[in-house]
């Protein structure tokens, strides 16, 4: 997988509690009874699920966690990413917390953006921070006259990418000042002559370049008597002459149009008024009014006392380009095809999907790409979803990386680390040999791995490990934990240990030296102040389709011989040897004032026994295809 | 696990939100000062003083499809972000493989893959709900929403209203999964469902339209008349098949045989293929028998399918139009050989129009809106319109075809006087724009234009101000897309028919919706509901 072997993942227990849905129970049973064909062989332990279809709700706990099921990807986290709620005494993953934003800042200039400005800036930095639209590297403000170099602050400025050498000159944009680039750019994209730019370029937010509403109305009404269609055509004829609107302009026009229509149809009294004043359209005056007041109350003031017409006006559709209607032009697409064919376009002249994702939706060519203001980031406080207890609270300053509160899970659960046991006990450098091996474990050859659990709590912890004897999935690997029950010492002060007896680490060293090479069932491999190491014996299974296929593998492949290759391809990590380990830990903690519900039995000296159980996945290595 | 354990704070909070909901329910039609929305009064004050003062009132709009998720705030013209559902998005946390070895779909696959398997990991769901693992869908949705909020929307999730733009036909298990995931994960006060077809029409400024959505799993043609969905027809000729076809073509290129491809498995990466489709898939303006007449030697240099990272390869430009042609237009296949679910695009449009009443047909046919990923393919829309107009010329608006009909018609014509012949012929030249009317449709208003009776005259005089809408001509109107339509609708404070309150959904799930579709009487004029009794909710079109 992504991480170098060996690695460990912890599955958040929230994966066991499905999304509560009142209508769900019946459905979930149906869906497990007939899983999709390719799902069947990867589903959690086929035999198990077949056996207890009926009583699956009761036996949810009994299911073996399958690291291979596609769902487990969403519940597995590296141990250091997990949090721990002290109220619920439970591990919390990003799925079982809620987040609240503390501050917004630009990751490029580290300026904090006030919350009132975030939305108006479009969640992007409002200063000079831009990313290259082609390669996403940060853009620098440079001057064109740099080559001559005599004037220090001379000439027009451009944004240039230091990585792919793209500059805004490529799209014909220069800036007058080296500051406040964002607003300059916005002004430019608003008002640049549309002839020189594509229509996607000009994202005009102002209504300035829309035609005057009255004029378009007059043109329609003049012709509507003779023939509506002629008028319509004339109106649509005008469109090519007028600059085609960009997305934003069209959106604004449509919004304006709908707003007027709603205002017109909701108080129809304005009709009389408009006809009296000689406005040809009922909307014209109202539109004027709505320019000044967004509320229709003022226009109601003038026309409200008039008797309403008998027939309520019907809301109509947009008829002209100024109302946001855009008739598709016939040669537009032909132009695009011609441009596709032209030799200067080519593959690299087209914007890729990634490039387009952050741009205006109708961007098609690289020439249409605009520099991207840097997306803001947030600092977020995190709370437990169930009890709202605060788990993480960062300092709000962007420059600070400190946290006021941070309850990471590793302070509460033992940190698992994995390391292969050197096969040859005589080797002086045991760490060197096995690391290369882990990417190609020979199948059917037993190996030993050392699992070290390191306790960070100030209480000693009792641990019980459990693994399925054979890993789920099609590669059946046998796993045995040689000493499944053990204790880990408390994380006492390091100085205590040093002062009490300096010999403690030495003894553990010597003991481990004595034990090296002889993993014994029922015996802890090694033990330190706050850590314990146990041995797992692993016999990697054979990959399906490999030459060293034994009976076990055959049984599986017979059932689904047809789609072996398809599955092998879709499950690209089938050769990865991952061991699900169920960890159950309990310890005696100091009873807190508010907690009675979790403690099983109160100890006399105000101690409560707490327990925590979760699944852990150990990534051991990759299995070789053949012996 | 229930998300809210009863506690002091929780009870306080529910009372606060319920009071707030009353305010929202009585939302006036006219624009008003936004009510300051205080999310969790009991907690918000302690951590983030800033977040409560933001204008949280703006609804957040999500458009969810099988491949993409678009999200943004109401009132903006384009979504803030577009997020895909690729295999990279369903990796474990801390699995940075995509960054280490390049995108997984870019390079060549180790071994050829079945075409269905090839697309599977890139889809959020499939229309056939038997094939989907709902739990996995929920996981993906949860993660996609969470990351969208954290990376792009930059606002606290769950504090503001949620507007979902969904296709009008959605399996109930999926819908239920989606809603229960969102409601149980975050504290959205309510979710409004909007139909993507209607929203596309709205974003084009229209009240009636024929919305052709060239989507991933299927292409739908939805006739909308006065904001109501009249009929929907669908075909499986869609972007997924196009992608598969392009994958096969590129696989053919990779293996070197430029001729007929006999492969049925794909060996090129999905992301690479999608890149090719999005850049260079195009459509010829008409079905040409003379294949290589237009610039036969025109070659295009694209990254080689065999090794896209390093080398380029020259590909005939015209070949890149083949998948579009083959998948969407089914050339050379007679209509009767196509199943109902796999009609070609022109037939789909034509049949949808044919199934409408003449009034609605006349209105819709001059308001054809293309949306969806496939509408970006250059040349496609013109081609569809051209073929539809060809179909209209040939068949008129009569569903009756076949040899028997021809014979009967000939017999009738022999009986008739020669002067009467013309009126029966549906083949009226295209220059007459009011062509599509055969004699069994006297109700077609365009037919009656020449003889204006006095009632008509009076109506004309009365409606002088209101321009009579264009109809009866094939015309295409550009839309800003369903997301923009929803943003428009929401920012105008129009409430949707389907508005699901959090508490009610959490009590009963989808089963809590009233079956009575007519229960909330829609406002006549706007077609959308603007307030009213909210004691019960309905699924309207989704029921």
TrEMBL record, chain A:
GO cellular component, one term: stress fiber
Main location: cytoplasm
Location of region: Disordered: 1-73, 186-246, 500-519
InterPro entries reported for this sequence: DCTN4
Keywords: Acetylation, Coiled coil, Cytoplasm, Cytoskeleton, Isopeptide bond, Phosphoprotein, Ubl conjugation
Coiled coil location: none
Subcellular location as annotated: Cytoplasm, Cytoskeleton, Microtubule organizing center, Centrosome; Cytoplasm, Cytoskeleton, Stress fiber; Cytoplasm, Myofibril
Polar residues bias (residue ranges): 216-226
UniProt feature, compositional bias: Basic and acidic residues: 43-52, 227-240
Residues that span the membrane, as ranges: none
Residue stretches of biased makeup (Acidic residues): 53-63
Subunit description: Subunit of dynactin, a multiprotein complex part of a tripartite complex with dynein and a adapter, such as BICDL1, BICD2 or HOOK3. The dynactin complex is built around ACTR1A/ACTB filament and consists of an actin-related filament composed of a shoulder domain, a pointed end and a barbed end. Its length is defined by its flexible shoulder domain. The soulder is composed of 2 DCTN1 subunits, 4 DCTN2 and 2 DCTN3. The 4 DCNT2 (via N-terminus) bind the ACTR1A filament and act as molecular rulers to determine the length. The pointed end is important for binding dynein-dynactin cargo adapters.
UniProt similarity note: Belongs to the dynactin subunit 4 family.
Official protein name in the record: Dynactin subunit 4
TrEMBL record, chain B:
Family from the record: Belongs to the actin family.
Signal peptide: none
Organism of provenance: Penicillium roqueforti (strain FM164)
Region of interest called Disordered, as start-end residue ranges on this chain: 1-52, 418-451, 515-543
InterPro entries: Actin, ATPase_NBD, Heat_shock_70_CS
Composition bias, Polar residues: 1-27, 35-52
Basic and acidic residues bias (residue ranges): 439-451, 515-526
SUPFAM superfamilies: Actin-like ATPase domain (SSF53067)
Protein name, UniProt field: Actin-like
């Amino acid at each position: 997988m992504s991480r170098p072997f060996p690695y460990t993942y912890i599955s958040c227990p929230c994966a066991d509690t499905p999304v509560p849905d009142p209508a769900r129970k019946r459905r979930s049973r149906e869906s497990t009874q007939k899983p999709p064909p390719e799902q069947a062989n990867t589903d959690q332990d086929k035999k198990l699920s077949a056996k207890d279809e009926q009583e699956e709700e009761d036996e949810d706990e009994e299911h073996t966690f399958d690291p291979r099921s596609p769902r487990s990807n969403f519940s597995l986290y590296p141990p250091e990413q997990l949090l721990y709620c002290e109220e619920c005494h439970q591990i919390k993953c990003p799925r079982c917390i809620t987040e609240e934003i503390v501050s917004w800042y630009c990751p490029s200039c580290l300026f904090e953006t006030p919350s009132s400005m975030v939305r108006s800036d479009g969640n992007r930095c409002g200063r000079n921070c831009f990313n290259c639209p082609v390669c996403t590297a940060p853009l620098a403000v440079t001057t064109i006259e740099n080559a001559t170099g005599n004037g220090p602050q001379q000439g027009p400025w451009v944004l240039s990418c230091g990585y792919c050498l793209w500059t805004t000159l490529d799209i014909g944009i220069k800036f007058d000042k080296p500051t406040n680039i964002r607003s300059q750019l916005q002004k430019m994209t608003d008002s640049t002559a549309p002839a020189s730019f594509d229509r996607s370029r000009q994202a005009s937010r102002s209504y300035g370049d829309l035609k005057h509403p009255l004029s378009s109305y007059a043109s329609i009404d003049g012709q509507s008597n003779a023939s509506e269609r002629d008028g319509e055509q004339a109106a649509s004829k005008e469109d090519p002459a007028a600059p085609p609107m960009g997305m934003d302009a069209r959106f604004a026009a449509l919004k304006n149009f709908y707003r007027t229509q709603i205002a017109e149809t909701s108080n129809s009294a304005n009709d009389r008024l408009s006809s009296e004043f000689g406005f040809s359209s009922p909307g014209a005056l109202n539109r004027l009014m709505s320019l000044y007041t967004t509320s229709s109350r003022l226009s109601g003031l003038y026309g409200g006392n008039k008797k309403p017409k008998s027939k309520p006006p019907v809301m109509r559709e947009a008829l002209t380009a100024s109302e946001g209607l855009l008739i598709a032009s016939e040669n537009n697409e032909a132009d695009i095809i011609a441009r596709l064919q032209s030799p200067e376009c080519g593959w690299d002249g087209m914007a890729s999907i990634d490039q387009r994702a952050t741009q205006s939706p109708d961007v098609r060519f690289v020439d249409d790409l605009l520099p991207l203001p840097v997306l803001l980031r947030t600092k977020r406080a995190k709370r437990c979803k169930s009890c709202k207890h605060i788990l993480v609270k960062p300092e709000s300053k962007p420059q600070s990386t400190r946290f006021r509160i941070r309850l990471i899970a590793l302070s509460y659960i033992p940190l698992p680390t994995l390391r292969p046991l050197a096969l040859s006990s005589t080797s002086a450098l045991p760490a060197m040999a096995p690391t290369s091996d882990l990417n190609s474990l020979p199948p059917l050859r037993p190996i030993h791995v050392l699992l070290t659990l390191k306790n960070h709590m100030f209480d000693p912890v009792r641990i019980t490990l459990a693994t399925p004897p054979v890993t789920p999935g099609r590669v059946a690997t046998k796993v045995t934990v040689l000493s499944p029950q053990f204790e880990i010492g408390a994380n006492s002060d390091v100085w205590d240990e040093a002062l009490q007896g300096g010999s403690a680490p030495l003894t553990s060293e010597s003991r481990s030296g004595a034990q090296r090479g002889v993993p014994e069932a029922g015996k802890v491999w090694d033990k330190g102040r706050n850590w314990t190491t146990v041995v797992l014996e692993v016999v990697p299974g054979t990959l399906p389709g490999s030459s060293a296929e034994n009976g076990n593998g055959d049984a599986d492949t017979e059932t689904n011989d047809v789609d072996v290759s398809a599955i092998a391809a879709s499950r690209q990590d089938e050769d990865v040897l991952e061991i699900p380990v169920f960890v159950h830990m309990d310890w005696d903690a100091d009873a807190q004032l508010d907690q009675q519900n979790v403690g099983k039995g109160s100890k006399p000296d105000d101690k409560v026994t707490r327990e925590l159980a979760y699944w852990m996945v150990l990534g051991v290595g990759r299995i070789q295809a053949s012996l | 696990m229930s998300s809210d354990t009863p506690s002091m704070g929780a009870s306080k909070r529910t009372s606060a939100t319920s009071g707030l909901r009353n305010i929202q329910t009585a939302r006036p039609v006219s624009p008003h000062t936004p009510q300051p929305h205080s999310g969790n009064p009991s907690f918000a004050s302690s951590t983030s003083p800033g977040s409560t003062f933001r204008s949280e009132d703006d609804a957040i709009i999500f458009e969810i499809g099988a491949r993409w998720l678009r999200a943004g705030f109401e009132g903006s013209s384009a979504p803030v972000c577009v997020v895909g559902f690729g295999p990279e998005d369903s990796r474990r946390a801390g699995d940075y493989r995509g960054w280490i070895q390049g995108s997984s779909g870019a390079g060549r696959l180790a071994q050829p893959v079945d075409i269905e398997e090839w697309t599977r990991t890139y889809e959020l769901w499939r229309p056939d709900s038997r094939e989907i693992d709902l739990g996995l869908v929920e996981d993906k949705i949860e993660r996609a929403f969470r990351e969208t909020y954290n990376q792009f929307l930059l606002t606290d999730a769950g504090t503001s209203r949620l507007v979902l733009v969904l296709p009008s036909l959605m399996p109930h298990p999926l819908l239920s999964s989606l809603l229960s995931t969102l409601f149980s994960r975050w504290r959205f006060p309510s979710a409004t469902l909007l139909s993507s077809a209607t929203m596309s029409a709205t974003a084009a400024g229209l009240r009636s339209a024929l919305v052709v959505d060239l989507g991933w799993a299927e292409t739908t043609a939805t006739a909308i008349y006065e904001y109501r969905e009249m009929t929907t027809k669908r075909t499986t000729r869609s972007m997924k098949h196009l992608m598969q076809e392009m994958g096969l073509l590129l696989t053919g290129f990779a293996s070197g045989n430029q001729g007929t491809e006999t492969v049925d498995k794909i060996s090129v990466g999905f992301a690479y293929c999608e890149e090719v489709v999005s850049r260079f898939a195009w459509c010829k303006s008409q079905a040409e028998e003379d294949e290589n007449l237009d610039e036969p030697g025109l070659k295009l240099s694209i990254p080689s399918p065999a090794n896209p990272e390093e080398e380029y390869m020259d590909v005939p430009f015209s070949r890149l139009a083949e998948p579009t042609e083959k998948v969407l237009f089914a050339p050379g296949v007679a209509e009767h050989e196509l199943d109902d679910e796999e009609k070609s695009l022109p037939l789909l449009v034509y049949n949808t129009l044919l199934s409408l009443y003449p009034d609605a047909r006349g209105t819709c046919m001059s308001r054809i809106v293309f949306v969806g990923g496939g509408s970006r393919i250059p040349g496609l829309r013109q081609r569809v319109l051209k073929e539809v107009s060809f179909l209209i010329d040939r068949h008129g608006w009569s569903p009756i075809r076949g040899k028997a009909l021809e014979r009967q018609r000939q017999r009738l014509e022999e009986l008739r006087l020669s002067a009467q012949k013309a009126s029966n012929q549906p083949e009226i030249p295209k220059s007459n724009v009011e062509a599509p009317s055969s004699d069994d449709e006297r109700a077609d208003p365009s037919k009656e234009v020449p003889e204006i009776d006095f009632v008509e005259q009076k109506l004309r005089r009365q409606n002088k101000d209101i321009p009579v809408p264009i109809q009866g001509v094939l015309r295409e109107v550009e839309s800003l897309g369903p997301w923009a339509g929803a943003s428009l609708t929401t920012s105008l404070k129009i409430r949707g028919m389907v508005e699901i309150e959090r508490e009610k959904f959490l009590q009963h799930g989808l089963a809590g919706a009233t079956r009575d579709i007519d229960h909330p009487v829609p406002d006549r004029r706007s077609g959308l509901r603007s307030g009213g009794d909210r004691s019960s909710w309905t699924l309207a079109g989704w029921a």
